[in-house]
Amino acid sequence: MSVTTPQTQAPRTESGLLATRPVWLVGVLATLAGAVVTEAFALVARAAGVPMQAASPGATEAAEIPVGGFFGGALFWSVAGIVLAVALTALSLAGPAVAPHTATSTRIVLAASHVVAAAVVVPLLARRLSRVRH
Fold it and tell me: CA separation (Å) from 24 to 28, 82, 118?
């Protein structure tokens, strides 16, 4: 009788072209890729006969979603998300930067603590969000 033990998986490491590129460039490339894939998905749905009409809240009737509309929407909202992330990061660092009656060294530690927290939280959430349940 043999006993099998579960194999442990090696931790995933970032490798490849994108791992060495600046975050802004990865964001631009990811945004463009997401917009292209979203538009392709919409074109397949359109070809399958799905009506591409939608109404905004408060509208009295639906309007045609033009070819390219999904690309534009994905592009717009991805850029909005990136801008929001950058703005919130800047906002989180602004508090320590302008803290009254606070030594410069303490301000630096306060700001660095935000970066340290993000370095722990963001990868863990990203890793969890990337897992697909089967």
Answer: 6, 9, 17
Residue type, 109: V
Q: Which residues contact 53 (CB under 8 A, 6 or more apart)?
A: 62, 63, 64, 65
pLDDT digits (tens, 9 = 90+) for 23-61: 788 888 999 999 999 999 999 999 999 999 999 899 999
Question: Hey, what amino acid is at 67?
Answer: V
How many CB atoms within 10 Å of residue 69?
16
46 in Cβ contact with 52 (< 8 Å): yes
Instruction: Report CA-CA distances (Å) from 72 to 65, 78, 79, 90, 100.
Output: 11, 10, 11, 27, 44
